[in-house]
What we know:
Low-confidence stretches: none
Radius of gyration: 18 Å
Number of helices: 9
Structural class: mainly alpha
Strand content: under 5%
Order of helices and strands: HHHHHHHHH
Helix content: 55-70%
Oligomer: single chain
Mean pLDDT: 80
Amino acid sequence: MAPPPQPLAGVVRLAVASRALVLALSLLSRLLFRPYDTSASLHPPCLLSTAAAATDPAPSVSSLAVWDGVHFARAAECGYEYEQSFAFLPLLPASLVLLARSLFAPLVPLLGYRAVLVISGYVLNNVAFVAAAAYFYRLSVLILKNSSAAYRASVLFCFNPASVFYSSL
Length: 169
């Protein structure tokens, strides 16, 4: 597979396409199969609950936070309530709050604050993945001294089986 004339732009396009494919497959699998991870349903109200945080009009969106994403979303929504919450450092929860209160603030009345935090996480992680793919290509060119091999390595990075973890919250 030869790299396109503008290989960095091609890598970015492939990274975006791979994220769209992963998101579509994730949503399709949620529709067809019962989720293996049930941590999304283990979300009690915040200890210092407010009316806005207590309601969740879009539980299907909120249920997309699984594994550690549940803890990051909870830290963003409720703060660090328990000692075990401190394992989830504050940069990602603070970024989720910033996105939810600025760019995605119009969605809060429609979907609820927790769902908007989850959407913010998905957007943030997917943008970070596309940037990582671009930088991976540039680093590969420097190390391998071969743009064709760097392009192939970037394609494998974008479409590897574990890439679902790069996109989820």
